[in-house]
Amino acid sequence: MARDAPSIDAYGGGGFRLSGAWRPGSLLIVGDMAEPWSVASLGDLTAASLAPVFQAGRAEVEFLLLGVGARNAQPPRAIREGLLAAGIGLEFMDTPAAARLYNVLTAEGRRVACALIAV
After folding, report:
1. In this structure, are residues 95 and 42 in contact, taking their beta carbons and an 8 Å threshold?
2. Which of 21, 60, 103, 114 qualifies as a cystine partner to 29, CB 3.0-4.6 A?
3. Residue 109: is it exposed, middle or buried by C-beta count within 10 angstroms (0-12/13-18/19+)?
4. Domain boundaries, given as residue ranges, for the chain
5. Alpha carbons 10 and 96: distance in angstroms, whole number
6. What pLDDT was estimated at residue 4?
7. What pLDDT is stored for residue 3 in this prediction?
8. 117 has a pLDDT exceeding 50
């Protein structure tokens, strides 16, 4: 799975360069699928916005790497508890750090989903 994972080449300016193509706005990556993500701030984050991660489940996703924006902040309790109940780990940090770590983890073959709020 990680072999086909897209790479994050750049971030900032309200979007991401993903495998060479500019993608405006926030981004959700599960496996080899990257899609626009409607979450513009941590306040917009809901279980529904992470539905593709929950649908993939523990078999496909070890943990969710969550980029929460320009500054690190704790995600809502409902999100943390929902991921725990699904058996999916959670690592959260500012978006620039999450974007860099995502590339490292996928290069190692880790089964990680990545949700990045654009900065």
Report:
1. no
2. 114
3. exposed
4. 2-116
5. 9
6. 82
7. 56
8. yes
